[in-house]
Design goal:
The complex is a heterodimer. Chain A is built from ten helices and no strands. Chain A is mainly α. In chain A, helix 8 runs parallel beside helix 9. Classes of the chains: A mainly alpha, B mainly alpha.
């Protein structure tokens, strides 16, 4: 290929690859990309220090100095929203990935071994489903009172049961396939079959559900911060901002609530769309 | 038939017992989960006089082994004695009774919206499958699943309460109509995310049922479209919706806590959150038990309702 041909060919290839992604999903990836950039580059791109109090400014509506205005302590809403991206990403990522790491072990064992192991694990899963888990999370996190990571850890535990069900049913689908039989008759160890033959085949389903779980974890974690639990007061966090600035809705600066709320919903919708899309792509 | 139903109800009751025991154990253990000495936790801001400490040790049997403490506490709970709140020193059961009506009203109103709009929109989408209205409903379902009730609530509060001024932004109303008016926005906020689940399940079930042979046969027999839809399609499509009602109930109860805080409604949810922020352990234990009891009983009732709607279960006997 000559150089001019290569230059010509490239945009075509890229646009063809992009065309395979529906517009809505492409937008979702853009949103998530922007949120990740905000989380990583917050110190450089936020116009102000997120906890800088300007009591001389106080509550103010959007202006040329503060694009989305300020809260009752004179802190810049835009800077706080940009800085809030990191707690909105890290915790949910740990919850979604951590819960699936545990659930994958449980689900593989229950689905492949069957018998009493399966009964034991699934009885536990059913039991956890019967508990009003959101309520228990609120009460336990509130009473222990240990900050952001305690909230993350308690939420992680409540995500394991449903993830275990998903992994188990995926394993049950793969188990009767001929290549698993072949591997077994070759005398390959159970552990190797589980992690080398079965796991790679159910990984796409897990990846799709991690994205969907991420959205749920984001919303749940933000809910705890909204109730004043988990994250320390004063932190630039979307859920915290909603409760801190709730009364500014009635006058002063509604953007103090609306901007972080929009950021949260956009991120959650995007992760749900990406998850649904991955699911259909891999399975549908 | 009656015999099978009684057996089924007994088995469901037996299954609810370990759940209630677990919840009560967690609730009881809260005293010990709180950082620091349980006596200090239970004293709250009261002065730690030797008499007060001795009275607490006596009331909560703190000198007994853990299991014995739990059993004695459980016995008191079973006699509807939930103790006294730390802040205010009032009987927990009286505080809960005052707050209960708003929460029940809110939950009932949301449940009606969830069932009406959720099933209606899901069925509509299924009937217009692939058209723009279907796509609109499915996409709004993703929006519903992604927006937690407190975020939806804040947007509704701002749009309809502050900007348009159609609905009140404070209080819970005095008489029935006033309360209906005050709780409209909260109920919609609470229903919005839960509705998405019902919508999705109804749509999927309708599409599946409409492809069944008995529906084709009913059409071929010349039955009216209305009769086919109501008696054949909808009736069978609703079975998975009833199966999911446990999830719906749990989501409504959990969501009501957030919605009450969002709209500053003096219900059981705000009571719980206030109690948690004050570390008022007896009050937290009381409200948590009420919520949990409601969830378990509601699940039990839907299981029983399920057997009436789907007679196959009744005749097959008990499928775990």
């Amino acid at each position: 290929m000559t150089l001019p041909e290569a230059i010509d060919a490239q945009p075509v290839r890229i646009s063809r690859r992009l065309a395979q992604i529906p517009l809505l999903v492409a937008l979702a990836f853009v949103v998530v990309g922007v949120v990740v950039l905000c989380a990583v580059l917050a110190p450089w791109i936020a116009p102000y220090d997120p906890s800088l109090q300007r009591l001389d400014v106080g509550v103010s509506p959007p202006s040329s100095d503060f694009i989305f205005g300020t809260d009752s302590l004179g802190r810049d809403i835009l800077s706080r929203t940009i800085n809030g991206a990191s707690t909105a990403l890290v915790g949910p990522m740990v919850i979604a990935a951590g819960a699936f790491a545990v659930a994958t072990v449980f689900g593989l064992l229950a689905g492949y071994l069957g018998g009493w192991v399966d009964t034991l694990i699934m009885r536990w899963v059913d039991f956890m489903f019967g508990l009003p888990s959101t309520l228990i999370v609120i009460v336990v996190v509130g009473v222990i009172g240990g900050g952001y990571w305690v909230a993350v850890a308690v939420l992680l535990i409540t995500f394991v049961p449903s993830d275990t069900r998903i992994v188990r049913s995926a394993v049950l689908e793969v188990r009767p396939r001929p290549y698993i039989d072949a591997a077994r008759s070759l005398g390959i160890s159970k552990r190797r079959i589980l992690f080398v033959h079965i796991l790679p085949n159910i990984l796409p389903i897990i990846v799709a559900y991690v994205a969907i779980d991420f959205a749920f974890a984001l919303v749940n974690l933000a809910g705890l911060s909204f109730l004043g639990l988990g994250i320390e007061p004063g932190t630039a966090d979307w859920g915290r901002m909603l409760s801190e600035n709730r009364n500014l809705l009635f006058g002063g600066n509604p953007h103090g609530t609306l901007v972080p709320a929009a950021a949260m919903i956009l991120t959650a919708i995007s992760m749900n769309l990406i998850g649904d899309w991955l699911f259909e792509k891999f399975i549908g | 038939m009656g015999n099978g139903l009684v057996r089924l109800i007994l088995i469901r009751l037996a299954q609810a017992v370990p759940l209630l025991v677990a919840v009560s154990l967690i609730v009881f253990a809260l005293t010990y989960l709180a950082p620091g000495d349980p006596v200090r936790t239970l004293l709250g801001a009261k002065p730690a006089t030797p008499e007060a400490i001795a009275a607490l040790r006596e009331r909560y049997n703190l000198d007994d082994p853990f299991i014995e403490q739990y059993l004695k506490w459980l016995w008191q709970v079973l006699q509807a004695d939930l103790g006294r709140s730390i802040s205010g020193n009032r009987r927990v059961i009286n505080i809960i009774a005052e707050r209960l009506s708003i929460s029940v009203f809110l939950a009932a109103m949301s449940a009606l919206i969830v069932l009406g709009a959720g099933i209606g929109l899901g069925a509509w989408a299924a009937l217009r499958r692939g058209r723009w209205i279907d796509r609109l409903i499915v996409t709004s379902g993703i929006l519903g699943i992604s927006s937690p009730p407190f975020v939806t609530g804040l947007f509704l509060l701002y749009l309809f309460g502050v900007i348009l001024g159609w609905f009140p932004t404070f209080g819970a109303g005095d008489n029935f109509l006033d309360r209906l008016w005050h709780l409209t926005l909260p109920a919609i906020a609470l229903a919005f995310s839960v509705m998405a689940i019902v919508m999705k399940i109804t749509r999927a079930a309708m599409i599946e049922v409409m492809a069944k042979d008995y529906v084709t046969f009913a059409r071929a027999r010349g039955l009216s479209a209305r009769r086919v839809l109501l008696q054949y399609v909808l009736r069978n499509a609703l079975i998975p919706v009833i199966t999911a009602s446990g999830l719906v109930i749990v989501s409504l109860v959990a969501g009501s806590i957030y919605v009450e805080v969002t709209f500053a409604l003096p219900g059981l949810g705000t009571l719980t959150v206030d109690a948690v922020s004050k570390r008022d352990i007896p009050l937290i234990q009381g409200t948590t038990l009420v919520f949990a009891l409601f969830v378990v009983v509601a699940n039990l009732l839907t299981d029983i309702l399920y057997t009436f709607v789907d007679p196959r279960i009744r005749f097959e006997g008990v499928r775990s």
